[in-house]
Specification:
The complex is a heterodimer of chains A (264) and B (776). Helix content of chain A is 35%, strand content 24%. With 264 residues, chain A is an alpha+beta fold. In chain A, strand 6 and strand 7 (139-141) form a beta hairpin. The longest helix of chain A has 19 residues, at 245-263. In chain A, 46% of the residues are buried. Chain B is 29% helix and 22% strand. In chain B, helix 7 (226-237) links the parallel strand 10 and strand 11. Chain B folds into four domains: 2-22 and 471-610, Aldehyde oxidase/xanthine dehydrogenase, molybdopterin binding domain (Aldehyde Oxidoreductase, domain 4), CATH 3.30.365.10; 31-139 and 217-245 and 257-282, Aldehyde oxidase/xanthine dehydrogenase, a/b hammerhead (Aldehyde Oxidoreductase, domain 3), CATH 3.90.1170; 140-199 and 294-404, Aldehyde Oxidoreductase, domain 4; 422-468 and 622-776, Aldehyde Oxidoreductase, domain 4, CATH 3.30.365.10. Chain B has a seven-stranded mixed sheet, sandwiched between helices. The chains are: A alpha+beta (264), B alpha+beta (776).
C-alpha cells in the first residue's frame, strides 16, 4: 500500500471534521474491501478515517416493529444477536453466511452497503424488508439507496449511521454462493412485509433489484411453483468466470423457490 | 518391536511448533542490514522490450540498486537451466530456450520479471518501481496450445525454435497397436482436458540472499532439497564451484513439487546480494505466487482403446499436447512425457500401447511438477476411458477392471509401455474398497436420493503410479558422547512429517527415545549430499537409507561390543538396546558402546560415534496403487456436487507410520478432488491470468471436501529395503478420476456423457441443459 495518514475519531463530529480537512480521505468501517484495495495499490487515500470508535454507529436494538442495527455492527454480531434472530431470523441467517469467520468478525453492515458490491448479501435484505438507511442528516428509503454497481445515494463524505429493518411477517434468504469467494452469485430474499410480498435479488445484476412478477405471483399463491416458472430477463444480468447470465437467471428462480419453501 | 519402529502411528514431533505458531519459515527470518527486493513484472504476455528507463527509480528514496536483464547480461549471469529434456522422435537433441532471471529483449508471459529494484524497505522499492518507464511493443499472443501450434503463430523462441513445438515424443509400439485396433470388436475414444492448476502452497516463496567476505553466497529459501538448487545455480547461473554456495531451508509450508525448482527471484536475490555485498530479501505476495509459481498439469489428449466384445483390453493409444509455458522449468518438458507417458497402461494388461506427446510452448507461466507430475494425467485419462468403455459395452466398470487387471502372479509385470511394475494385488484391493463403500447397495441409495430430487453417482478409480526410483540417498548418522543420535539427510520436509518418521525408524531399531534423535535437513553445509523430496521418494528411499545406515551402525557396535566383552563379533547380537553375547547374559548397553567409541580403542571399521554414511539406491521404481470410491449427490437444479461418501483402499507397500501416511492420503486426495471440482488456472486469449486470487481460484476447503474412509493393504515392494512404495502423491492421483467418474455417473441419468474439469456447478448445469436440448 501507499503511505497514508490515519485517524480514529471518537465521535461523528470529529470524523466529519477529519474527513473535510483532507484532500483524498476515505472512511474505513471493517476494511474488508478497503484494505485489500490499499494493499494492491489500487487506491491512494491521503487519510484513512477509521470509524471503529464512533459510539453513534454501534449497537443493535429491537423496538416495536423495528430492528435497528448500527453501521459498525459486524456480520458476526448480527448473526449472534438473539434479538435479531428472534425478530428477523432471515437477517441473522444472511449475516451468518457472509464470507468466512474472518470476514464476519471484521466486516460491517454499514461498510457493506456503502460499498454496494453487486454480490454483497445485505442489499437483498435492505430492499426485501423495506429498510431505511440513516445518515447523520437524513434517512434514505431502501429503493433509493442502491443506485448502481458500487454506487449509492450517499453524498461524498456522508456516512451510514444505522439501518432500521421493519420486522416482516416472514422472510427467508437463499444464496447460491461463488464457490471461491463466497459472495452471492445469486441471493434472493423473499419477505412478506406489511406492504406486501417482496422478492429482492442480489448478486445477479449490477445492483440489487426486485422481481415484481414473482411478487405478484406469490401474492396469489405462496408456493415454490408460483415462482419457479417465472423467467427473469438475462439482458441486464452479470456474467463472469463463475456464472453466465443465463445461469444467474435460472438460479434466481431456484433460490426464490427455495426461499418460499423455507418460509412456508 | 517397542513403541516406535515400522508400523507405529507415532504422533508428529513437528506439530507442537507448527500448531503453536513457533515454526520458523523463511519470511520469519530477518538479517541485520538486509535490503528488500521488489520485482517489476511484465503486464504483457508477449512483447518486445524497446526501452527501459529506470533512472528516476535508481535515484528514488532508499533505492540501492536497480537491475535489468541487460545488467544481468553484463554481470555474466547465466540462464536458469533445465534438468531434463526427453528425447525427441526426430532424434535431434533439444536444448532449452534461454531463460534469463530477468527478461532480456522480450517478455513471454504476464508476471515475468523485468526489473529488480533493491531498496532499504519494500515500500521504497515498490514506490521506485512505479517510476520505471518501459516501452513495450506488443506481439501476438499464443495463450493456448492450439493457438501456439496454429500456422502463423508467433514463435516464442525464434530463431532457435521456428515454431512453438519444442519436441514430439513417443513411446510404445505403433505397429502392434495398429494391429490390435484392427482386431478390435469395439473402439472407445475420449478427448480429455487435464486442466491447469496453481500450486497454492500456504507459505509463499521467499528468499534471503547473503554473501560473506569471501564472496560465498548463502541463500535461505523454502525448497524440497537445497542440493539441486545449489547445483543449478552453480553450474549455469553463477558459474562457480558448488562449494561457493550454501542453501539453507528452514521450515517449509507446503511445496507440492513447485518448491523443487529454481525461480527467477532466487537468482535475483543471489546476484543482488553478491553485487551489493548486503543481504537481500524477497517474499512473494499471493498475487505473485499465482503469477510466477510454476503451474501444474495442462494437457490435452485424445485417447482410444480397443476391446473385444466381452471386454478384454487389446490396446490403447494416446496423443497429447503438453504445455510447458513460456520457458522450460527444470522438468517442464519431462513431466508430460517421460514422467507420465509410460503410465498409460494403468493397472491393466494392455497387450499393445502407443503414446505420443507434443510438447508446446505458450505465452503462459512455465509449468512443472505438481503433486503426481504426469502420473495423475495418465491415471485420469485411463480411468475416464475405462469408465466410458464400460458404459458403451454395457459391462459394469468394476467388472471390466476385474477382467483386465494385472494379476498378482504376473508380477513383476512389464507393460506394453516398458514399465516393470513391482507388485500388487489389485482385485483384492478393489474388492476391499467396494465392500467398505457398499458399492453393491448403490441402487437403493440412488433411489433414495431421487426422492429428494438429487442425482446420486458413484465413481471408481483404480490408479497405479510410479515412485521412488532413480537416485539414491546418502544420509550421515552419528552419535554424540551422550548417546544422542543425529541424522543428516538430504530430503526435505515440507509438511509431511519426515522428522517424525526418520526418528521413529531409528528409534525403533536402536530401541531409544525419539527425543534423543535429531534430524538435520535443509542446509547444504550440514548435509553433504541429497536428492531432495519429490516423487514420493522420502520414506521409500530416505527411510530405507536411514534403515540401512542404522544397520551399519549396529554392525560397528557389535564389533566394538565384541572387543569390550572379549568375544567374537559373530557371537554378538543386538536387541532391546543391548549388545549381548548370544545365548549368555553378558551384555553391554548401547550407550556404553557409544561412549567406548569415543574413548576406547576402536577395532577396524569402527568410528567415533559409530558414524556412518552409506548410500542407498533403490533397485527400481515402486508402483503404489489403490482404489478410490467416491459417492456424490448432484443437485440438478443448481449443478452443485455434494460428497456423500469417500472410500480409499491403497497398497502403498509397508506403512512405516500409518498416521502420517493417512495424512498424506487425505491431503493428496483433497488436492485431487480440488482439480476435479474446483481449481483451474485460466488465461484469457491475451494471456492475462484471470484466476489471480483466491476470490476466483477456488480451493478445496473443509466445507467442500468429504471425510475419507481410508484403509490399506500392505503388499511390500522388493525395490527398497523398507518395502514402502511411497504415499505422497497417491491420494491426488486416485482422487481426480474417482470424483469425475462419480459426477458423470450421477449425470448419466439425465443424459450427460462427457464433462471436463473442473466440474463446477455452472459446467454441470450447462451440461444438463445441453443434454436436454435447452439453451444454457
Amino acid at each position: 500500500m501507499y503511505a497514508f495518514d490515519y485517524t480514529r475519531p471518537k465521535d461523528l463530529a470529529a470524523a466529519a471534521q477529519s474527513f473535510a480537512g483532507s484532500d483524498e480521505p476515505v472512511y474505513m468501517a471493517g476494511g474488508q474491501t478497503l484494505i485489500p484495495t490499499l494493499k494492491q495499490r489500487l487506491r491512494r487515500p491521503s487519510l484513512v478515517v477509521d470509524l471503529g470508535a464512533l459510539p453513534e454507529l454501534k449497537g443493535i436494538a429491537v423496538a416495536g416493529n423495528l430492528v435497528t442495527i448500527g453501521a459498525m455492527a459486524t456480520h458476526a454480531e448480527v448473526a449472534a444477536s438473539a434479538d435479531v434472530r428472534r425478530a428477523i431470523p432471515a437477517l441473522a441467517d444472511l449475516a451468518q453466511h457472509i464470507g468466512d469467520p474472518q470476514v464476519r468478525n471484521r466486516g460491517t453492515l454499514g461498510g457493506s452497503i456503502a460499498n454496494a458490491d453487486p454480490a454483497a448479501d445485505y442489499p437483498a435484505a435492505i430492499v426485501a424488508l423495506g429498510a431505511t438507511v440513516y445518515t447523520p442528516t437524513r434517512s434514505i428509503a431502501d429503493a433509493d439507496f442502491f443506485t448502481g454497481m458500487f454506487e449509492t445515494a450517499l453524498e461524498p463524505g456522508e456516512l451510514v449511521v444505522k439501518v432500521a429493518f421493519p420486522v416482516p411477517k416472514r422472510a427467508a434468504y437463499m444464496k447460491f454462493r461463488n464457490p471461491a469467494s463466497r459472495y452471492a452469485i445469486v441471493g434472493v430474499m423473499v419477505a412478506e412485509t406489511a406492504s406486501g410480498i417482496r422478492v429482492a435479488v442480489t448478486g445477479a445484476g449490477p445492483s440489487v433489484f426486485r422481481v415484481p412478477e414473482m411478487e405478484a405471483a406469490l401474492a396469489k399463491s405462496f408456493t415454490a411453483d408460483a415462482v419457479k416458472a417465472i423467467a427473469v430477463p438475462v439482458d441486464d444480468l452479470n456474467a463472469d468466470l463463475h456464472a453466465t447470465a443465463e445461469y444467474r437467471a435460472h438460479l434466481i428462480g431456484v433460490m426464490a423457490a427455495r426461499a418460499v419453501v423455507a418460509i412456508a | 518391536m517397542g513403541k516406535f519402529g515400522v508400523g507405529q502411528p507415532v504422533r508428529r514431533v513437528e506439530d507442537q511448533r507448527f500448531l503453536t505458531g513457533t515454526g520458523r519459515f523463511t519470511d520469519d527470518i530477518n538479517v541485520d542490514g538486509q535490503l528488500h527486493l521488489y520485482v517489476l513484472r511484465s503486464p504483457y504476455a508477449h512483447a518486445e522490450i524497446r526501452k527501459i528507463d529506470s533512472a528516476a527509480a535508481a535515484a528514488a528514496s532508499g533505492v540501492v540498486a536497480v537491475f535489468t536483464g541487460a545488467d544481468f547480461e553484463t554481470l555474466g549471469v547465466g540462464p536458469i537451466p533445465v534438468a531434463a529434456i526427453p528425447p525427441a522422435n526426430d532424434g535431434v537433441k533439444r536444448t532449452a530456450p534461454f531463460r534469463p532471471a530477468i527478461a532480456t529483449g522480450r517478455v513471454r508471459y504476464v508476471g515475468e520479471p523485468v526489473v529488480g529494484v533493491v531498496a532499504d524497505t519494500l515500500a521504497n522499492a515498490r514506490d521506485a518501481s512505479e517510476l520505471i518507464e518501459i516501452d513495450y511493443a506488443e506481439l501476438p499472443v499464443a495463450a493456448t496450445m492450439p493457438d501456439a501450434l496454429a500456422s502463423g503463430a508467433t514463435a516464442l523462441h525464434a530463431p532457435q525454435y521456428p515454431s512453438n513445438l519444442l519436441l514430439h515424443w513417443a513411446i510404445g509400439d505403433d505397429a502392434a497397436t495398429k494391429e490390435a485396433f484392427a482386431k478390435a470388436d469395439k473402439i472407445v475414444a475420449i478427448d480429455i482436458v487435464n486442466t491447469r492448476i496453481s500450486p497454492t502452497a500456504i507459505e509463499p516463496r521467499a528468499v534471503i540472499g547473503e554473501v560473506d567476505a569471501n564472496g560465498r553466497i548463502t541463500l535461505t529459501l523454502p525448497t524440497q532439497g537445497g542440493h539441486g538448487q545449489r547445483r543449478w545455480l552453480a553450474s549455469s547461473v553463477l558459474k562457480v564451484p558448488e562449494s561457493q554456495i550454501r542453501i539453507v531451508t528452514p521450515d517449509v509450508g507446503g511445496a507440492f513439487g513447485m518448491k523443487n525448482f529454481l525461480f527467477n527471484e532466487t537468482v535475483i536475490c543471489a546476484v543482488a546480494a553478491r553485487e551489493l555485498k548486503k543481504p537481500v530479501k524477497w517474499t512473494a505476495d499471493r498475487s505473485e505466487s499465482f503469477l510466477n509459481d510454476v503451474h501444474g498439469r495442462d494437457q490435452l489428449s485424445h485417447a482410444e482403446m480397443a476391446l473385444t466384445k466381452d471386454g478384454k483390453f487389446l490396446g490403447i493409444r494416446v496423443s497429447s499436447l503438453g504445455n510447458v509455458g513460456a520457458y522450460l522449468s527444470q522438468f517442464g518438458a519431462f513431466i508430460p512425457t517421460a514422467a507420465g507417458g509410460a503410465m498409460h497402461c494403468g493397472a491393466y494388461v494392455f497387450p499393445a500401447a502407443a503414446v505420443d506427446v507434443k510438447v508446446v510452448m505458450t505465452n503462459t507461466t512455465p509449468l512443472d511438477a505438481y503433486r503426481g507430475a504426469g502420473r495423475p494425467e495418465a491415471a485420469y485419462l485411463v480411468e475416464r476411458l475405462v469408465e466410458k468403455a464400460a458404459r458403451e459395452l454395457g459391462i459394469p466398470s468394476v467388472e471390466l477392471r476385474r477382467r483386465n487387471f494385472i494379476k498378482p502372479e504376473q508380477f513383476p509385470f512389464k507393460t506394453a509401455l516398458g514399465q516393470t511394475y513391482d507388485s500388487g494385488r489389485y482385485e483384492e484391493v478393489m474388492d476391499a474398497a467396494l465392500t467398505r463403500a457398499d458399492y453393491a447397495g448403490i441402487a437403493a441409495r440412488r433411489a433414495e436420493a431421487k426422492t429428494r430430487g438429487k442425482l446420486r453417482g458413484i465413481g471408481v478409480s483404480y490408479y497405479v503410479e510410479a515412485c521412488a526410483g532413480g537416485s539414491g540417498e546418502q544420509p550421515v548418522l552419528s552419535f554424540d558422547r551422550n548417546g544422542k543420535l543425529t541424522i543428516r539427510i538430504g530430503t526435505q520436509n515440507n509438511g509431511q512429517g519426515h522428522e517424525t518418521v526418520y526418528a521413529q525408524l531409528a528409534a525403533g531399531l536402536f530401541d531409544m527415545e525419539l527425543e534423543d534423535i535429531t534430524i538435520i535437513q535443509g542446509d547444504t553445509d550440514e548435509v553433504p549430499t541429497g536428492n531432495g523430496t519429490g516423487g514420493s521418494r522420502s520414506i521409500p528411499v530416505g527411510g530405507s537409507a536411514v534403515q540401512l545406515n542404522v544397520a551399519k551402525m549396529i554392525d560397528q557396535g557389535k564389533s566394538l561390543a565384541a572387543e569390550m566383552m572379549e568375544a567374537a563379533t559373530v557371537d554378538v547380537e543386538f536387541a532391546d538396546g543391548k549388545f549381548r553375547i548370544a545365548g549368555t547374559d553378558r551384555a553391554v548397553g548401547l550407550k556404553d558402546v557409544i561412549a567406548a567409541s569415543f574413548d576406547g580403542k576402536r577395532p577396524d571399521g569402527v568410528t567415533e560415534g559409530l558414524r556412518v554414511s552409506e548410500n542407498f539406491n533403490p533397485s527400481g521404481a515402486t508402483f503404489p496403487n489403490g482404489c478410490h470410491v467416491c459417492e456424490v449427490d448432484v443437485d440438478p437444479e443448481t449443478g452443485t456436487v455434494a460428497f456423500v461418501r469417500y472410500t480409499i483402499q491403497d497398497d502403498l507397500g509397508i506403512a512405516v507410520n500409518p498416521m502420517t501416511m493417512a495424512g498424506q492420503i487425505y491431503g493428496g486426495a483433497v488436492q485431487g478432488l480440488g482439480q476435479a471440482l474446483y481449481e483451474e488456472a485460466i488465461y484469457d486469449s491475451t494471456g492475462q491470468l484471470l484466476t489471480g486470487s483466491f476470490m476466483d481460484y477456488c480451493m478445496p476447503r473443509a466445507d467442500n471436501t468429504p471425510s475419507f474412509d481410508f484403509a490399506y493393504t500392505e503388499v511390500p515392494t522388493p525395490r527398497n529395503a523398507l518395502g514402502a512404495k511411497g504415499a505422497g502423491e497417491a491420494g491426488t492421483i486416485g482422487a481426480t478420476p474417482a470424483v469425475a467418474n462419480a459426477v458423470l455417473d450421477a449425470l448419466a441419468a439425465v443424459g450427460v456423457t462427457h464433462l471436463d474439469m473442473p466440474m463446477t456447478p455452472l459446467r454441470i448445469w450447462q451440461a444438463i441443459q445441453s443434454a436436454q436440448g435447452k439453451a444454457a
